[in-house]
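Notes from the 1:1 (GR / supervisor)

We went over the backlog. Supervisor wanted to see one worked example end to end before approving the batch request, so GR pasted a single chain during the call. The sequence is below; no edits were made to it. Supervisor asked that the structure be written out right there so they could see what the output format looks like.
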Amino acid sequence: MKVYAIIPSGGKGIRANTAMPKQYLKFHGKELIAYSIEVFQRSNLVDEIIIAAQNEFFELLDSIKKTYGFTKLSHIIEGGAERQYSVFNALNSLECSDEDIIIVHDAVRPLLPQNLLVNSIQTAKEFGSAVVAIKAKDTLIKGKEFVESYIDRKEIYYAQTPQVFKYKIIIDAFRRSQQENFLGTDESMLVKRAGYNIKIVEGSTLNFKITTDDDIKLFEMISKPKL
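Structure output shown during the call:
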């Protein structure tokens, strides 16, 4: 059994208001995506890393691979117009057995703790599917300009990545979605829609997604080298 980490990297960083996709921005001389790749390079549970990206960034990704010695980065493939298509392209580039483990992780979640990665892999091995998520902590309001109602947060989670699945489950879910022309927001949605149960793994607020200008400023502070 092998463990593959897929990192879809086709996002354009619109909400972060940056000229370059945010995963390629440099923080203290190091590209954001390099921080994310490093998490999987360091893990003794991960065998290979696959990145799906736009062609124009292939040369940069190859340079990142060489600069940081990412020996597990085995495939840099063309991504699609949507995240779902990028992940599907990555899946189709692999020769997997049914029980192999597929990890999908956002390129812009660079602070994934190793223990959380281990927990998600072990959970997927046992249950077939795992999604990392954190419980809602704040009061949840429904409304537009004015408050309309409040939502009970007891059973509300915010989905994160990694999302981890046995190959036979995730490839079945993606193939069904393609046949039915269904576009989901993440992998767990496709897997649940295909009829599989998904085990929730308690996530971490450290594992935040760098989406906005404030997120960029926060990661800039957190990743600053200690003097």
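Supervisor's comment: The CA atoms of residues 23 and 33 lie 5 Å apart.
Batch request approved.
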